[in-house]
């Protein structure tokens, strides 16, 4: 409880990127927040404000070449700090590790499917891809892991929002494209998924399938509402994954993956819950693939432990080499 007068009428302005996925997930979050608001007697109304980010303006350039973390969130954070918007819904995996002074993640709602999946011209599993098939992804994490499993595949960069990537499957001669199941499901396009890749074969991006809702630290009213939308299990898992990413100083443009699951000790509480975190660092060509699995009860410590175990095996050298080349 942050101590707000929650019966004051208020219009909460929600900032969002204008991609179809961003608009859809923002709409879904607002629907949930309206329900929570009503249930708890808040007199809150919601308004959407679209914001164009640097990442949106350079979608035609290979993002890993442009570099920089948080390409999709900087303008949104500025709007929050300036009070133009009151909250912003992000895909957790696009949220930078460090938030600016004055801002915080107010809620991590329940995660949906964290897996990567294939959308294929034909077939229903990775094994159905012909020898030398051309697969589209611009994620080094995905191409590294796919190359590791199937060195014959030709991985080519594909850019754009998920709708345009699906279109490019047909128009640009790919046999398959790799996307997150979460985005497709949120768009209602789950029927397009040909094959899910299990999380132990394609370790998801940190926070994949989860959302984060950024707000101002001082905004007690918004924080009180967002507290009610937080999912403890997802939040614990994402904290461990993000701590791992932070310890490796990573962004989303390097082959790093992490996935945590929570094992509860008691059915109705998260006291003493144990987390199991898998962390991965690979070389872009998939020849080196380092993975570590550890358990612990402190999410931040667990993230640092898995990162340290990978660094001890040379992960920092792999990451430094990639850093030099982009
Ligand atoms: N980097 C783009 C991005 N950011 C979030 C999602 C959707 C998946 C999610 O919410 O985790 C996607 C598309 C994709 O990776 O296929």
Describe the structure.
With 326 residues, the protein is α/β, with parallel strands linked by helices. The protein has 3 domains: 121 residues, Periplasmic binding protein-like II (D-Maltodextrin-Binding Protein, domain 2, 3-Layer(aba) Sandwich); 82 residues, D-Maltodextrin-Binding Protein, domain 2, CATH 3.40.190.10; 88 residues, Porphobilinogen deaminase, C-terminal domain (Double Stranded RNA Binding Domain, 2-Layer Sandwich), CATH 3.30.160.40. Helices cover 34% and strands 23% of the residues. It is built from 11 helices and 13 strands. The protein has a 5-stranded mixed beta sheet with strand order 2-1-3-10-4, with helices on both faces. Strands 7-6-8-5-9 form a 5-stranded mixed beta sheet, sandwiched between helices. The protein has a 3-stranded antiparallel beta sheet with strand order 11-12-13. Helix 9 runs parallel beside helix 10. The protein is globular, with a radius of gyration of 20 Å. 44% of the residues are buried. It binds ligand PBG. Pathway: Porphyrin-containing compound metabolism; protoporphyrin-IX biosynthesis; coproporphyrinogen-III from 5-aminolevulinate: step 2/4.
